[in-house]
Each structure stands twice: as C-alpha cells, then as structure tokens.
Amino acid sequence: xxxxxxxxxxxxxxxxxxxxxxxxxxxxxxxxxxxxxxxxxxxxxxxxxxxxxxxxxxxxxxxxxxxxxxxxxxxxxxxxxxxxxxxxxxxxxxxxxxxxxxxxxxxxxxxxxxxxxxxxxxxxxxxxxxxxxxxxxxxxxxxxxxxxxxxxxxxxxxxxxxxxxxxxxxxxxxxxxxxxxxxxxxxxxxxxxxxxxxxxxxxxxxxxxxxxxxxxxxxxxxxxxxxxxxxxxxxxxxxxxxxxxxxxxxxxxxxxxxxxxxxxxxxxxxxxxxxxxxxxxxxxxxxxxxxxxxxxxxxxxxxxxxxxxxxxxxxxxxxxxxxxxxxxxxxxxxxxxxxxxxxxxxxxxxxxxxxxxxxxxxxxxxxxxxxxxxxxxxxxxxxxxxxxxxxxxxxxxxxxxxxxxxxxxxxxxxxxxxxxxxxxxxxxxxxxxxxxxxxxxxxxxxxxxxxxxxxxxxxxxxxxxxxxxxxxxxxxxxxxxxxxxxxxxxxxxxxxxxxxxxxxxxxxxxxxxxxxxxxxxxxxxxxxxxxxx
Length: 533
Prior knowledge:
The chain is mostly beta strands. It is built from two helices and 38 strands.
C-alpha cells in the first residue's frame, strides 16, 4: 500500500471557511476526474482533499466515484490546494493551484495517476537454505540519480522462509540487493549480494517493472562467504576514541552509498576485523566518532581483496595537514588592480564518497587575498562554486605551485601547503538555438557544454542550461578554450545534475566549439537522438 500526495503551496486571496462565502460572494465549485495515465481508466475511491488556508484553515474531502469523478460544491472565491492519493497509485505530473473567482465553476480537471508495481521473491544462503531476517533493497539508477550511482528506494526484511515482497514501486528498471545479518557469533559472514548472485552492482541485471505489474520469483542466492580483513590502528598518541570503519569500492562502474563496516574485534584494543568482504578494490577509511556532529577522517588505505583473508593491514591514524591560500588576479584581466577580494568565500569539498556527506572546508578571503582552511584531513578536495563579481571566473588552481585545476588536491599530513586560486575577467560567451530532429526550435531544450577531456573532472568547468522561447540559449562567463556542446530534448529526466554524467555516452552527437576571450561564439544545435541509445 502506498500513500502518495502532492502538496501545492498556496495563499488565501480572501478569508472565509470552506462552504461559507464571506460577504456577498457567490460560491463556486471544483469538479474533476481521477484516472490512470495514458488510458485514463477511472480510479475509484481515490481520496481527494481540497484545502484553503487563512486565519481559520479548513479542508474538505471526498472520494472519486465509480467513474473516477469528484466534485466540491459551495466553495468561496479563493486559491486552493488540491491533494489526491490512491492505494497502489502515484501521482503523475503536477496539480496546479486552483483559483476560484466569484461564482466560478472549475470543470474538466483531470488528475492522472500511475499504477504501482510489486517485486517479490526469496533469499537463500550458499547451501540453498532460506535466509531469514535479511535486508532486501530495491535499487535504482533512474533520474534524478546520476547514471553511475545506484540508490536504494525501498526495503524490507525476509521472513523465516526467506520470502520478501516490496510493493508500491513506480514503473522502471531496478536492481535488488540482499544483505544478510552479521552478528558476533558466526564464524562466517556474507557480503551484500545483487540479484541473482553477484557482489558487483555493475553486473546486476535490471528488473523491468511495468505500470501496475508484478515481478515475482526474484530469487537471490548469496555466494560463498566473504573474507575477513584484519589489522590494527597505529596512533600518534595513546588517545583512544570511538571509530567507524568504512569500505568504499574504487574504480567501480556503479557506485552505491557506503555503509559502516562493523568492527568484529573483541575488546577495546587497536585491532580491527571486518567480516564478509567481497573481492574487489577498496579504500578502507577510519572515521572519528568523538564528535557525532562533526566527524573527522583519521586514516585511509587502499585495499585489494581476493578470495583469501587479508591480514596485517595497518592504518596510521594521521594528524591532518594545514592549507593556507591566496587569491590572485590573472595577468590577462582588465583593471585587475581594482579587484577587491575581501569577503569572498573560498570553499572546497571532498571528492570522495566518504561520509559525512558534503564534508568540506571554507574560508573568507582578506583584502590582501589571503585565506586559511586550517587543519584538513588527507582527502581529495575540489574547489566549490564561488560568488565573484560579474564577468569574473576562476582561471587557474595551484597547490604548492602545481596545476590542480582538474585533478583536485590533498593536504600533506602534518605539513602546511599553499593553495592558490587565480581569477580573471577575460571570459567568453556561447549563444544559439536548440532545434529538434525536425529542425524546429525547441523551447526548454537542454544544453551540456563540456570542456576538453583533460579538464572534465572539474565540475565547475562543465556547464548546463535550458533554452527559453524559440529555443534560444545563452551561457555567460565561460573560460576560453575548446568545448563540446551537446543538446538534449525537453525531458524532465535531463536535469542539470543528470546531464553532467551523459557526456561520454552522447559526445559523438556534439558540436565542437571554440570559446575566445571577450568573444561570443554562436551556433545552432540539434538534439542528440536519445531514442537510439
């Protein structure tokens, strides 16, 4: 069962209770139909709520009848919020704000809903016996999740027969993952397994679920037990505190959110033991738990795991390095001497999956261009977006004199490093028209502008925009250089975040663009044939 609802924020135009028009206002009404998307098959028993806010908020509720219709009579003039939900259906699209004027009847409102589906099956251990109390998750890579990410969206535990059933799923493509229970008592433990029996999320076949469909007999079997990873912490002092271990796959085609790895070592020694680890390449992180509001990274080591236990891993709990910086003006800038850096915020964020999410550091630039991040753990960091005066952009990034514009940078444990950010106003611009496959201008078409391949790891250099009326687009303040422009259709799935991960797949349909300093480059673009991919 699923309870889906869409809320639309509204403001009351005139005060009054539902069904009671203030003053001499004439009541109006709202009538509509609730049906399935595409076929418009009537949905009976959908719960429809209309609400008006004000000093005395009030609402009224009704059910759609056998023909899917609903009606709210005697409504005073106002703006209204409409909410619709139905068992095993999700709302498709957007319910607009409804404005009633004096005596107005709003008719013909169609609310479309999409039937939800179900995935069910069994989980078994390596001997084919039912796997009870195991966590089963349905995972997706569909937008707005980036293509290289797989995100869990629903979960359930198996019963004592190893059975599971996950309902209320939107139509789409899914993977299914089972994670057996890990306790201190077993001598063996199993890694998370993707349907039907792989530990690699990139190798998991997709389960296609249609609207209102049910996919059954999804049977997962965990492979042989994972191996153990044992080692010890090396601390610079005798200080001890709570720590969390985190294994994160390296160079994986598909990434999944990291989860803590339980330390199975007994006692409070500096030793650790992780069970049920699948073969692969990892980073093993140690996260401090001394302050739950602000965790800190204490150590990280690369780890290769095969089919045998890994022994003797040493994780050095290292002191952080420090990063001091300066903001300078490029030689090609016009009136660079007049540039005032004071008050500008410089932010950097972790370019790794290690939690906490969004781990980063920021500092305010002084009038002389100096800034200081202070202690920084050994993470790969990238510069975040900056608020600069109009026309200015970041033209270079250097760490201890080396170019880190695309690679990002790290601190040196126990040492001080210098991070330099160079800004310029010698930018270019790009403008033109996005057209569909029939050569007609496409309003709301999407544009992805990719820099040279060597620079694409820097998210600030990858630009996106949406065309306006007549398919026209414009991007300002672009660093000079060579780019590839790729146009996409007007589809909700092509959000800016999602577009950034489609460059490799659709680059062959792009157009090569040169952006010159203080110049505007113009070009018309035809959308990529996404239906062929």
